[in-house]
């Protein structure tokens, strides 16, 4: 008891800081003792939960970093600069002096201006496109990538940096990219000074061009000047009557011979205006109403305004193409491909030659009320004749199943007869006698007998079937390979070429390829809505310079196995 009393007295006379340290030490000792007493499985469970939460946070941060790391950008400098100046009025540094900005109509003496543009030196860069996207899930970014992949152009995607590091642009005194594409041009003009200077110096030294898109949203200013450029933008416009400037230097596939009459879809279009001679309009349209641009000053009621402009590089030595919308409109896809070709000196370019084969399956097949009538056959012939004016020797290729001949109504049976009356006006290919899927036949002789019935029908009705081409119903048995189908085709029809949409996968369509099996070439099938730039080849062939050649696909000079 005496000893305990002495200890108590000793602790009582200790200074307060020392008492605090002793208390903290006791707290740590108790905590460590509690941790040691935890069961092992509880500790492991806690660690697993912590790791999962960390991974979820990291995934969210990476996928949303462009939007989280920086506030919504202020893309434009105000045109008016404050005070009472109206939007769309220059403050004096836009290359044309003070006053109202005129619409950039067809600028004269283009040849003289083009002579000042530095030629593209394609030998100093790799044939790779650098694409800056908003995120890996953005719609426009995916459309850009889809067109590059469909065109077989090599590319690399990066999340557009705000304040982060720019990817390495050179390696061993050689440029790594021959073209820069920005899904959002605001990310380009709002780069920090270091990255912007780095990118501009690279583009100027290696002759690399830039393509940018601006899609107005609810936060976009109605009228503003593009930061750092003598170019004014007016957003949220409703436009109509689209046309192509025939003097635009970049035109290659796109053909400026007609006006696309009528209103353009949406009211979120952006038009460009500038007095600087470096800007050449590519696509132009009229406003929906005269009041839409009343603040521009007096002018024609249907003045033309540029929605896509080409920067010839006279301002800073860098050539660019700017789009006032996305790629949803079909004409923008053509101009986008032309822009890639022009800015890369035709290094990344699509040929003007096309070898097409348009198949029409299931002739004579169908329930009553859904089959072809005389009027349908006449429409098919009229369409073929119209397309022949654009594509020499254009001919529809009809796939027939003879078992269903004359199995419709009297009106539909007359349609069958009219098809046979004009049989020499079309090409024909066998499509199985009863439209059965070949992979259901495991016996080669039974499958061959079905084909012989179709061949006898063709011979009895004078249908020419010497093309060496066939298509299986639903492309069944072509891939995955059903070997009995290939053997029967060769023995009955002497088939050399077929097609499928299944190799190596059905989706996405641009990844489809061809192959050769048992001496038969298998061509990839693309439906009209799946061919991106070429989806309007037949229905809008008049809008391009592409030269079509209607021949069997296996006679194409480029008909390889892949």
TrEMBL record:
Q: Which UniProt keywords apply?
A: Golgi apparatus, Membrane, Transmembrane, Transmembrane helix
Q: Where is the Heparan sulphate-N-deacetylase deacetylase domain?
A: 353-524
Q: List the GO cellular component terms.
A: Golgi apparatus
Tell where it localizes: Golgi apparatus
Q: Record keywords: Nucleotide-binding included?
A: no
Residues of the signal peptide: none
- Sorted alphabetically, which Pfam families does this protein's record hold? HSNSD-CE, HSNSD_N
Q: Which residues cross the membrane?
A: 43-62
Q: Which GO terms describe its molecular function?
A: heparan sulfate N-sulfotransferase activity; hydrolase activity
Boundaries of each Heparan sulfate-N-deacetylase N-terminal domain copy?
Answer: 125-343
- Tell whether Hydrolase is among the UniProt keywords: no
Q: What is its main location?
A: Golgi
Q: What is this protein called?
A: Bifunctional heparan sulfate N-deacetylase/N-sulfotransferase 2-like
């Amino acid at each position: 008891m005496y000893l305990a009393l002495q200890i108590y007295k000793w602790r009582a006379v200790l200074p307060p800081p020392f008492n605090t340290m002793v208390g903290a030490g006791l707290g740590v000792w108790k905590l460590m003792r509690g941790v040691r007493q935890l069961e092992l499985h509880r500790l492991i469970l806690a660690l697993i939960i912590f790791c999962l939460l960390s991974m979820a946070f990291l995934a969210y941060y990476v996928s949303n970093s462009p939007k989280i790391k920086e506030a919504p950008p202020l893309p434009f400098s105000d045109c008016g600069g404050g005070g009472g100046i109206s939007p769309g009025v220059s403050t004096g540094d836009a290359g044309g002096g003070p006053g109202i900005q005129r619409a950039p109509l067809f600028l004269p003496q283009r040849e003289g201006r083009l002579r000042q543009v530095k030629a593209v030196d394609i030998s100093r860069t790799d044939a790779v496109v650098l694409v800056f996207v908003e995120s890996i899930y953005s719609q426009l970014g995916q459309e850009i990538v889809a067109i590059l992949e469909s065109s077989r152009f090599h590319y690399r995607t990066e999340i557009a940096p705000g304040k982060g590091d720019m990817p390495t642009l050179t390696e061993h005194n050689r440029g790594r990219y021959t073209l820069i594409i920005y899904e959002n041009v605001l990310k380009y003009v709002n780069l920090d000074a270091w990255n912007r200077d780095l990118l501009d110096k690279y583009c100027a030294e290696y002759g690399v061009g830039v393509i940018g898109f601006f899609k107005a949203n609810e936060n976009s200013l109605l009228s503003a000047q593009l930061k750092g450029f003598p170019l004014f933008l007016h957003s949220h416009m409703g436009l109509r009557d689209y046309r192509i400037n025939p003097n635009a230097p970049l035109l290659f596939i796109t053909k400026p011979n007609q006006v696309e009459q009528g209103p353009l879809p949406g009211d979120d279009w952006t038009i460009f205006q500038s007095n600087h001679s470096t800007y050449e309009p590519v696509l132009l349209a009229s406003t929906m109403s005269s009041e839409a641009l009343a603040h521009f000053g007096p002018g024609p009621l249907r003045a033309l305004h540029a929605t896509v402009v080409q920067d010839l590089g006279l301002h800073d030595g860098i050539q660019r193409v700017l789009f006032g919308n996305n790629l949803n409109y079909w004409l923008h896809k053509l101009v986008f491909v032309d822009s890639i070709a022009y800015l890369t000196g035709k290094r990344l370019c699509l040929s003007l030659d096309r070898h097409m084969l348009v198949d029409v399956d299931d002739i004579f097949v169908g329930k009553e009320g859904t089959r072809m009538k005389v009027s349908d056959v006449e429409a098919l012939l009229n369409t073929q004749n119209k397309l022949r004016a654009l594509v020499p020797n254009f001919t529809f290729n009809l796939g027939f199943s003879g078992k269903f001949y004359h199995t419709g109504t009297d009106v539909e049976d007359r349609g069958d007869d009219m098809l046979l009356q004009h049989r020499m006006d079309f090409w024909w290919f066998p499509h199985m006698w009863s439209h059965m899927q070949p992979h259901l036949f495991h016996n080669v002789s039974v499958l061959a007998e079905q084909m012989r019935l179709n061949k006898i029908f063709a011979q009895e009705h004078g249908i020419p079937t010497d093309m060496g081409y066939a298509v299986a119903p639903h492309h069944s048995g072509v891939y995955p390979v059903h070997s009995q189908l290939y053997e029967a085709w060769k023995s009955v029809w002497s088939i050399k070429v077929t097609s499928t949409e299944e190799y190596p996968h059905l989706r996405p369509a641009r990844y489809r390829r061809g192959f050769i099996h048992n001496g038969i070439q298998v061509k990839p099938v693309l439906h009209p809505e799946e061919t991106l730039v070429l989806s309007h080849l037949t229905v809008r062939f008049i809008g391009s310079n592409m030269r079509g050649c209607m021949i069997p696909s296996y006679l194409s000079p480029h008909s390889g196995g892949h």
